[in-house]
Amino acid sequence: MHLHNYGIAEEESEIRVPRSSLQGQSTYIGDISERRNSMGNEEVAILKSFKYAVHDAGAKPTLLHINCEGCEWSLLPGAVRSGFVQDVPVIQVGFHNYGDAGLGQRAIEYCEIRKQLSRTHKLVDGAVPFAWERWVLRPNDDARVSSQLQSKEEMLPPATLVTAYFNIISKHPAIEYDKWAENILSMQDAMVIFTTPDLISRIKLRRAHAINRTRIVPTTLDDFKMAKMHPEEFWQHQLHIDPERGVHKNYQLYWIWNQKAEF
To answer: What does DSSP assign to residue 13?
Structure first.
């Protein structure tokens, strides 16, 4: 994996973000009001154009995964206008109702984005409005992309998704996570899934359509490298100093976050 230390947008620019706005789990910069009074105490985010990103990477992505805490409302229309997404095989996007625009305005923008994407892509069944959606290139366009790849003599392997599911005390009840898990497990892609032994049978049932492309890795939270790296007192302190501890509720969440690189 190679990381590119910049964001992408329709046009190149810089965004200055107050460091105080970067605390917590996520940051939406659309309505930051303290920006005027934060000179000298900012982080600068570099945005490069879609054209630059394609040139820098050497090709367009085969999977575009967007979870950018509200930037999707401007990023996706710009990606459509620029032609960036018209031949990307798979697009996964999470929508967020952030900002002062209001739900009514966001609903209008949401419908327009769906309309734009539907010209070249098909929405996969099971999408949850204002949550997660997966779009795949329509067959005629997919054939064109395959032809382009073959002409370069470089057929890329199918995508393998690596994910995990652990039932812990969280900001959402387990029934909501079960619903979201059902959505992602319905995908046709090959998957590697880390989970606890008691959830294996449930996951196998939801992956029955693609069980030959599914590997389930049984594990427990106590087996995590992160769980063994520091004593419980350390993690309790992390929870105590977390400005969103009222939301996160359980320091085991930090184990999962930090364990992702080990999956």
So the answer is: E
* Helix locations, 119-173, DSSP H: 139-151
Partner residues linked to 8 by β-bridges: 48
Alpha-carbon torsion, ordered 99, 101, 106, 112, to 10 deg: -120
Residue 49 has what pLDDT? 92
| Residue 246 in this model has a pLDDT that exceeds 80 | yes
Chain-wide mean pLDDT for the chain? 82
End-to-end CA distance of the chain: 14
* 262: three-class secondary structure by DSSP: helix
Sheet holding 214-218, edge to edge: 160-165, 190-195, 214-218
CA atoms of 61 and 42, how far apart (whole Å)? 31
Give the DSSP letter of residue 86.
T
pTM over 0.85: no
SS3 206: helix
Task: Give the separation between CA 50 and CA 83, rounded to whole angstroms.
Answer: 9
For the segment 135-141, the average pLDDT, to the nearest whole number, is: 80
